[in-house]
Amino acid sequence: MRGGNLSGSEGHLLESGLVVPVCRTRKPSSFSPPKPKFFTVRRSLAIRAMSGSPAVSLKEKEGTPKGSMGSLISTDPPKGTRDFPPEDMRLRTWLFNNFREVSRLFSFEEVDFPLVESEELYTRKAGEEIVGQLYNFEDKGGRKVALRPELTPSLARLVLQKGRAQSYPLKWFAIGQCWRYERMTRGRRREHYQWNMDIIGVPGVEAEAELLSAIVTFFTKLGITSNDVGIKVSNRKVLQAVLEKFNIPVDSFPAVCVIVDKLEKLPREEIEGELDKAGVPSNAVEGILKALSLKSFDDLEALIGAQSGAVAELKQLFALAEGYGIQDWLHFDASVVRGLAYYTGTVFEGFDKDKKLRAICGGGRYDRLLSTYGGQDTPACGFGFGDAVIVELLKEKKLLPVLPHVVDDVVMALEDSLRVPAAGVAARLRSKGRVVELVIEKGKKMKWVFKHCDTLKAKRLVLLGSTEWDQGKVNVKDLDAREQTLKTVDELIEST
Amino acid sequence: MRGGNLSGSEGHLLESGLVVPVCRTRKPSSFSPPKPKFFTVRRSLAIRAMSGSPAVSLKEKEGTPKGSMGSLISTDPPKGTRDFPPEDMRLRTWLFNNFREVSRLFSFEEVDFPLVESEELYTRKAGEEIVGQLYNFEDKGGRKVALRPELTPSLARLVLQKGRAQSYPLKWFAIGQCWRYERMTRGRRREHYQWNMDIIGVPGVEAEAELLSAIVTFFTKLGITSNDVGIKVSNRKVLQAVLEKFNIPVDSFPAVCVIVDKLEKLPREEIEGELDKAGVPSNAVEGILKALSLKSFDDLEALIGAQSGAVAELKQLFALAEGYGIQDWLHFDASVVRGLAYYTGTVFEGFDKDKKLRAICGGGRYDRLLSTYGGQDTPACGFGFGDAVIVELLKEKKLLPVLPHVVDDVVMALEDSLRVPAAGVAARLRSKGRVVELVIEKGKKMKWVFKHCDTLKAKRLVLLGSTEWDQGKVNVKDLDAREQTLKTVDELIEST
């Protein structure tokens, strides 16, 4: 059985990752914000042809209402893209920090690649969805380029570039934005972020086992259990063995994998038609489908024998999983193929056990990617883990963290004449590592300040009033203990 | 005098940030890496038309050398872009963490925006370099879009979008990649990262003072002193007062600022020609140049009087700087104008005192940007700080950090039969927060392992050999103390 309602199947590029909007953890504030005078926001598609912004005190032209320069621009981000206001950014940062922390525990090193890459890096001919949805364009120099749809080809390019200058194995991770463009848009997102971990230079399934253990470590860190999530594991050599049985030409293999991956999405006749075009005779289709339905190693061995290597590799991988203590998370399932042409061995796919969501992550072994780029064969494997489905899952399981903006001290001058020393107090507290909100607005009342402290979850409020300041002191309110004391600035800093 | 050899002047977009390559801290390794067999890297511009990567064990076509599929792709990143291999990424991460930590101390919240924005967000008519070098293109839906050249317009768009749903002031920061495209390329970079901090909703120079204090806090954190770096500060109202004197039309102001910013780069006649086109009579040019040469508040007051607000604002800003203890870093210098059309008040620019580098950072007040987008006037100020010039400066001052990849434990099975328990040991150490390099390569000798530990700066080496393992023990080598002990796995974990 295939991975829930997975509608795409791009291996490293999770289609799913591009589709589901990041859930917002914003919670209603108990503090009603001051109504700024300067907003009357309406949405509009027009934009004024701007001549720049004249300085404030220059005389306004007659007939132009002061402060409003014309019709409003579209304030939405471009179709299929996201803004990250603070509440969404906190969630993204939290997620990325978890990606980083897990990668670090496994001794992986972070890398990154250009957002714009040459189109040629992606134009494989196997009919992958990822190629059909390339966000490509011609740059001003006439070069065919694309916003990267996935990170693996860039990684392969960098590995080729560095060549002998590096010691193997490479254990690299990356967290990067990936793009796609569909001509027929269905309100789907055009960008997502993806966490990749890759091991270059290790031919054994010990590498895949490390990757799977990292994924499980990540889930566990977030409070997700093997009751919530599983990882289906298979090996493309299963399909390869079946194709060999039917004497199907070697060149067809990547395309056949991509077609077979669409089994749950397309009508059977369409699949058969595509397989026919790829050189697969109709009498082989049954054999392929039968192989894909297998769920046990014994049945697999009975069908393809042990000579393909698939059975031995799978058994070794599951044995290592026992060592890592992640065996409850893994499920052998021959239906997992993944939709990228370049996989050659192990393939896997994380899924939610409620089968409500698309694939959470996916990856596999791609021992021939570097040679398709003109380098020498290099054993390699990796996975992609998008930023969208995981957030959906956390929401579903009520595991989304509460991530408030947290401030240590709010510092405020009660009179304008004390703004200079107030800045000094803020600077000294910050030099001690305190997160300090200095009140720089004017004319704010105490009621507003206390509400502001509440919104910011501030621990202390430091007030500068002239009576105390003339005695060299400030008023320190401990907002948790609800205590108030007069302190010199030195005492305040020392007590920090 | 203008800012050293600054050749561009885009305010929030530091031209400089796009030009100087990030210096690599890579140091020669004492460990000679094993020569992988699978690389013979040559550079080539051709790429094979790929049909995908056939599985490893399938028969090779005759005449194709095993493992090499054709001519090598170009392994360089696209023109003007960068890869971030581990050593460069560590530097980037270190720099960004410092940006984040300083922003946090000032109680700013992180935000981000789409990398692709509507072209209209940037097409101001003031002749800015940033608009002339827009990395724009038509997407597949025929929309005119651009890779963002700066972050401020996106921020303004998001502020307009959120409207009354937020409480002011907003204190936001962002770290994002920005792009440009020159038709006439001079080997300059097309992308850089930029740290922005912006305050929305505060009209007083208390906001600018916070920003300047944040910048100085950042410099100080990196070991840079006011002997190394200064920040020139001026106010566009100075120029505005001069233009008013000569009855120059209000609409010309943004364009005049952009032209005047080019004073050091273009011949005097060209500047005068451009000013003439912008409606500035030749008799006004002398007055403008005189105003720009001022370096003291007294001279400024003598020239333009106090009524423009410029003098009062500048004096208040420098008084606040004393409060923050950053007065040594600031220099009033009327020649600072910045090259973006949207600034309306304070403008500033960080420079190295040796005058070897371009501007390090720049910013100012832009109270009218939201109204040019069709919203209501909103007081705002901010700065942009690129990732390139600062690295050049750190290199120059020998302040670049040494940032090795650091590992706690290297775990290795001495026999293949112990790979499963070795995985278990690694998993348990990682669950305690240890960074663990598990040796997953096969056939490695002890000599290699010790070199590997040395390269990774590992603290311990944990070896699983069958003799000890049969007694339930592992061999633990403390690599700093050069001690070796036998421990049970429980003892190992407890001693961690």
Automatic annotation (TrEMBL), chains A, B:
Database matches in InterPro entries: aa-tRNA-synth_II, aa-tRNA-synth_II/BPL/LPL, Anticodon-bd, Anticodon-bd_dom_sf, His-tRNA-ligase, HisRS-like_core, HisRS/HisZ
Q: Which Pfam families match?
A: HGTP_anticodon, tRNA-synt_His
UniProt GO BP: histidyl-tRNA aminoacylation
Give the Enzyme Commission number.
6.1.1.21
- One cellular component term from this protein's GO annotations in UniProt: cytoplasm
Instruction: Identify the residues that the record assigns to the Aminoacyl-transfer RNA synthetases class-II family profile domain, covering every copy.
Output: 80-404
User: What segment(s) does the record annotate as region Disordered?
Assistant: 53-84
What are the UniProt keywords, alphabetically?
A: Aminoacyl-tRNA synthetase, ATP-binding, Ligase, Nucleotide-binding, Protein biosynthesis
Asked if the record carries the keyword Ligase, the reply is yes
Entry-linked NCBIfam families? hisS (TIGR00442)
The protein's name in its UniProt record: histidine--tRNA ligase
Q: Whose protein is this, by species?
A: Physcomitrium patens
Q: Which gene encodes it?
A: LOC112284119
